Amino acid sequence: MIALQKHPVQILRLNVRSELHGDQEKTAVDIKLGFDVPNRYLDSLAFGLRGALYSPPDDRNMPVPGTDDDHLTHVRYPQLGTLRWAGEFESVSLHLHLGNGRGKGDLLFIESKFGKLTVTPKEGGTCACVARAQVLPTPDETAKLVGLLKHEVPATVDMTNAFYTDE
């Protein structure tokens, strides 16, 4: 999965539901997140994926400021459209930075699941991504999430303890 550090994400959709954990019912929320990332993030999914989907600019003599020599900006196969990544990642930490910069008011979900990742390669070296995060919020956190619907917020996605499942 793509790790993010205080990166802008848009809360596109929420699905509030109940989930059984043993004999106990808990509130669960599916959060559909939308975000753009530089195409170098593709290699965190699978090494070489960026090179498979992008090629160097047509005019190599025209440098792009602030880029390295392997800056790939041209989509090789635009006909592929949106690509779907199978499986999901568990034990992902999702931190929505809503507070005053010191963590107060933030939403932190340390045992999230991430899946249903789609990636749309765009010309210029950017990828438009959509992913689903599954969280188990408290009632107060659920209310805050509802207030964020259709808004853009900074988010950190920490993959340190995450593991991949191909379910």
Task: Kindly describe this structure.
This protein is mostly beta strands. The protein has one domain. Helix content is 11%, strand content 52%. It contains 3 helices and 9 strands. Strands 1-2-7-6-5-8 form a 6-stranded antiparallel β-barrel.
Give the structure's gist in a few sentences.
This protein is mostly beta strands.
Structural class: mainly beta
Q: Termini, distance in Å?
A: 15 Å
Strand fraction equals over 45%
Q: Which H/E pattern describes the elements?
A: EEHHEEEEEHEE
Q: Spans with pLDDT under 50 lasting ≥5 residues?
A: none
Multimeric state: single chain
Q: Assign an overall shape.
A: globular
Helix content: 10-25%
Overall average pLDDT? 91
Tally of distinct domains: 1
Spatial sequence of strands, sheet with the most strands = 1-2-7-6-5-8
Q: Total number of helical segments?
A: 3
Report the biggest beta sheet as strand number plus sense, adding barrel if it closes: 6 strands, antiparallel, barrel
Number of strands: 9
Gyration radius, rounded: 18 Å
Layout of helices and strands, plus pairs?
Blueprint: E1 4-21, E2 24-38, H1 42-45, H2 49-53, E3 54-55, E4 74-75, E5 83-96, E6 107-122, E7 126-135, H3 139-148, E8 152-158, E9 163-165
Antiparallel strand pairs: 1-2, 1-8, 2-7, 3-4, 5-6, 5-8, 5-9, 6-7
